[in-house]
Specification:
Number of domains: 3
Number of strands: 8
CATH architecture of the largest domain: Alpha-Beta Complex
Number of helices: 14
GO biological process, one term: glucose homeostasis
Pfam family, one: HECT
Helix content: 40-55%
Strand content: 5-15%
GO molecular function: ligase activity; ubiquitin-protein transferase activity
Order of helices and strands: HHHEEHHHHHEEEEHHHHEHHE
CATH class of the largest domain: Alpha Beta
Strand order of the largest sheet: 1-2
Largest sheet: 2 strands, antiparallel
InterPro entries: HECT_dom, Hect_E3_ubiquitin_ligase, HECTD4
CATH superfamily of the largest domain: Hect, E3 ligase catalytic domains
Radius of gyration: 25 Å
Protein name: HECD4 ligase
CATH topology of the largest domain: Hect, E3 ligase catalytic domain fold
Structural class: mainly alpha
Length: 358
């Protein structure tokens, strides 16, 4: 049942339908103002939708919702989310992948490239470690572990900062009370930890050959802490998944370009900002003939938006153009009134339809 529902998702339907299309056909020209050129057309069966822009944007929005839900297993909520750190941030699911999953990761990479070319930001909330690995930057074993899994980071630090064997025993006793340790084979009443740990997906694995039979002692506690840290770093890098994502991305935009971008620049280029800057939006709004920014109803309009929460502003952007985020890339850094509207595409405010009224 779960497989059937995921197969019917927008993401999997599109992956199946585009699998036989050469990637060169998806490499449309880069967005440069006005409406972008889309890599493919979306038709919602049974729905009357005019034009291609709204459908394409809605499709990308829907796909991002699916990726960050339980209907697809490609992304995993980072463990730190459980304790309100980096809440709602995702990482690639760190587990061995099937051929079918590899194809889906490849398509995920293609979607990242398609979004960059069309300059339609994807509402994805991924940890910085994802963007670092994507552009080929090494992960920081302290900072990135803390961001992704604060509980494991604190656990490792406890073992690294122990000063004597008494403290080690006390720590093992504390862990035993949380059902993470077993009794020492030498002293049956003395709790001890073994060279095993839980993966991010909740499976217990051995940190070294025959790890289930090796107790953690004063001599090897540092080896134990290092092994846990290495396990998490491997899980954050997810080489098999990331190779497939990069291959998909590389079929749409040249991977050499990634070497010129920082992880943050890559994230902003792909996903835009997760909040709406009203001043930026004002600077990129066009008023059609007969309307001026000083008109009373236009002033009321902006006053109303200023009272919106960020969540409401995102809903307004979704209502206006079928995407929750506005593109971040903009050649007019100062955002002045005389600068070119390329990209992001300006918001257009038109006069009311029909005859003039009150």
């Amino acid at each position: 049942g779960e497989i059937r529902s995921s197969e019917n998702s927008y993401f999997c339907q599109a992956a199946r339908q585009l699998a036989c299309v050469p990637s060169s056909q998806l490499c449309v020209k880069l967005a440069s103002g006005g409406d972008p050129t889309y890599a493919f057309n979306i038709r919602f069966t049974g729905e009357e939708v005019h034009g291609t822009s709204g459908s394409f944007r809605h499709f990308l929005w829907q796909v991002c919702k699916e990726l960050q839900s339980s209907s697809l297993s490609l992304l995993l909520l980072c463990p730190s989310s459980a304790v309100n750190k980096n809440k709602g941030k995702y990482i690639l699911t760190p587990s061995p992948i099937t051929y079918a999953e590899e194809q889906l990761f490849h398509f995920f990479g293609q979607l990242l490239g398609i979004a960059i070319r069309a300059d339609v930001p994807l509402p994805l909330d991924l940890l910085p470690s994802f963007w670092k690995t994507l552009v080929g930057e090494p992960l920081d074993p302290d900072v990135d572990l803390q961001e992704a899994d604060i509980l494991t980071y604190n656990y490792v630090k406890k073992f690294e900062n122990i000063n004597d064997e008494t403290e080690l025993e006390a720590l093992c006793a504390e862990i035993a009370s949380q059902h993470l340790a077993t009794e020492s084979p030498d002293c049956p009443n003395k709790p001890c930890c073994k060279f095993t740990y839980l993966t991010m997906t909740g499976e217990e694995v051995e940190l070294c050959p025959r790890g289930r039979h090796i107790p953690v002692g004063w001599e090897n506690k540092d080896v134990y802490a290092t092994a846990i840290r290495s396990l998490r770093m491997r899980e954050l890098q997810t080489p098999e998944c990331m190779t497939a994502v990069r291959a998909g991305l590389g079929s749409i935009i040249p991977l050499q370009l990634l070497t010129t971008l920082t992880p943050l620049e890559m994230e902003l280029r792909t996903c835009g900002l997760p909040y709406i800057n009203l001043e930026f939006l004002k600077a990129h709004t066009m008023y059609q003939v007969g309307l001026m920014e000083t008109d009373q109803h236009i002033e009321f309009f902006w006053s109303a938006l200023e009272m919106f929460t960020q969540e409401e502003l995102c809903k307004f952007i979704k209502f206006a153009c079928n995407q929750e985020r506005i593109p971040f890339t903009c050649p007019c850094k100062d955002g002045g009134p005389d600068t070119a509207h390329v990209p992001p595409y300006p918001m257009k405010i038109a006069p009311p339809d029909g005859a003039a009224g009150t």
